[in-house]
User: Fold Proteasome/cyclosome repeat family protein from Tritrichomonas foetus.
Amino acid sequence: MATAPNFDGVWGTAPGLLALLTESNPQFQIHGLNALHQIIENEWPQIADNLQLIEELAANPNFIDRENAALLASKTYYHLGKLKKAVHYAILADSTFDSSSNDEFTRTVIAQTMKQYIRILNDLDYANRIGEDFKTKLSKIVDGILHNLILQKNYTQCLCLSIETRFDVYVKLSLQHQPSLVTQAIALAVNTVSDSKYRQSLLKTFVDFASDNCDKFQLSQLHHALRDPLRVAELLITLKNSSDSDNWLLAYQIAFELAENASQKFRQDVITNLNLEFRENETKEAIVKNLENILQRKILLDLYLQFLFKNNKTDIHIIVALKETLDNTKMLVHSSVIAAYSFMFAGTGDDNFYRNNTAWFSNGRKWAQFITIAAVGAIHIGHLKAALQVLQPFLSRGTPQYALGGGLYALGLIYANYSWEQKVLDIVLHAMENTSSFVIKHGGCLALGLIAMGSQNLKYYEHARGILMDESPEAGEAAGYAIGMIMLGCGPCQQLDELYTTASTSVHEKVTRGGAMGLALMMYGKEEQSETLIQNLLNCRIPLMRESAAWVTALAYVGTASNTALQRLLHLAVSDVNPDVRRAAVIGVGFVLSRSAKEVPSMVDLLAKSYHPHVRSGAALALGIACAGTGMQEAIAILEPLLEDLEDFVKQSAMIAMAMVLQQQSDTAVPYAKTFRKYLMKMINKKRNDLQVFGLCLAYGVLNAGGRNVVISCNSLRGENSVLATVGLALFCNYFYWQPLALMLPLAFHPTAVIGLDKNLQLPNWPILSKGNRKLYANPPSFESEKEVVTLQKAAQLSITKRFDGLRKKDAEEVESETADENQEPEEDEQDFDILDNPSRVTINQLKGINLKFCNDYRPITGEVFHGFVMLKEIDKQDDEEEEDDE
Assistant:
């Protein structure tokens, strides 16, 4: 029997073969198609000229080889570069398309098929347009692709694609064949899956695999992501009951991580479950007490306070210059300097300047006095042991209302996110219940919200709601903020509906504003669950409620980089008729992209050049929020022109944002840091209005925040979203309307500290080696050294005096040159390494150069060094030597 001729690579056969497709005999048509498949690599241009003929065969339901025709059409469109059409006909080719093939055509079509299928999952309108039949065929191809990957034992690629295409069957199959992939699977789910429901479903799937194939630290993070305090408590109990002391250290490390990032309610639930386990156990004190203290943040706050106090490098001359140069008779200016002072010393507990200048500090009147007293709380944030003693003069009976209100606010700042001290809560509640002063109620509500943040305690909610329903706008605004903080992240519920009704029907703008922001806080982290509320807010005619829609979007999707959220915010930023709504929408971009800082400059670049000043102001703050402490050149380039903006409030936002970006950036690492300090120094002596002064003072405060030992971020320095920091930053951004809210910013300060602890939670001798020149991480020069010095004219000298001085100088230089070689040593700053004590200040960029093995006595229990608390295990000398031999 004769074999069919091989047409592969033979030029000039296409016209004849294409002619066969016009024949009425199906056998001739089939032969033509098969032959064209063999020569398409070389003769696709001629085949493309007759593409319509091939498409007709593919669409003919009576043609028995229409799938083969569809495959030929797909290959032709592939060569033409029309990949969507290539995918379309590959799908029509059905089983004729071999997804297991490894040629370039197949790989390209598979990639485009996956892309199209993922778009169907994420774009409902597109999914509805293409129809169910097409979706079914597309799904069949995707299924075949994943099945082939399993057969090829390419489990990693199958896992990634099955997560992205939501084929749960293949997710499980990949993990069953290679359980060690669960670590990668968790990271993929957390960082790439935008649909919160599907993400939670995936994480639940991973739990069983993770129990045996993950380290316990990551397992705890998985349980936290699933909001399962019971599982976290069980894990801590298992570790703590272990005979291996390394497991005790790991339990402490998990507890510190939760103390940094988890909500107060979650931590309280973990503590409750721990106590239930040991309720009849007399050894509870020894086993659980340390874990309790860590989860309640007692140990964390105390150690951070010690670190910030010891390493405080704030230049007091800056505050002196602001105090003596600016017109402090104006209350806004006075409050601005106070805010700068509180930022510089926030968390250090060092209030000596305040105590030495009480006369000047007491110049504040009414709300300026309120801010002055509250600023003391910012300085003592986390100073739980001394809080009541420090604030006693402002909380005693008979204290004037503005001082008492400020004292309550200060108490809230000190005890923020810590509601385990009932005595403190009783002081706040008693003060609010026994007064008719709206100032005291205002300070009390802010304090109650801060202390009970995220507790979702209905008793405290009712207290705040009672004040919200009063006729006092000032107290009602603070009550709205308080409700949002207390019920933080509660999502859709009766309390949310009540606040929405009050905010949308109130005749007082302040009440509406407080309630509108409270709604955003209640939807914190709720992602898709917030959509119904957002649509209701967007349809509201009240601008403050539409502004709330922007804030709800920002906080519900904080750190997710959600396309849905970004598209909504960008649309609001350019379309809403109200300037405040537009500004809030642009600021929201910074929150949504807070974990994707590199994407923000390109996202807001055009907005920063908008004709609308409120949009420019919002773009500046969005950059500051997302890019704080990065020294990112792209962000600096956008902010620099805004420092010379014609609108004062835009210039104000730009100064604050630039200071955020340049936090802890040395002149060597980011040369513009010096330029910006010179700009601020000129602003001190320049004629300016109060808005510019406010921006100037806050910029100085941010640059020197926490004694130059902190950076601002919505996230912990390990990248996890921080409840306290996000709330602090969101409320700070509302200083436009109410200046006391500026004092919320220190809640977002994260100490750039590496604090090593041993099994007794003590600070061992653990020196660490930091690679890199210390100039890269150095603090800026002193304020006095950078001031412009006025040079006086030189006094006249006799010629003989000049000659004598010249000879004396020459002799001194000769002596100095003779001894220079003997005494010359390399400058300390020129070393390419630095040895740091425990605890130590380590900037974000510096962390990359930390050497784990410099100290032979201790190693981190997790095997890595990160900012915050690092539990250390003692190294057995013999084991250490064996490890070195293996290397």
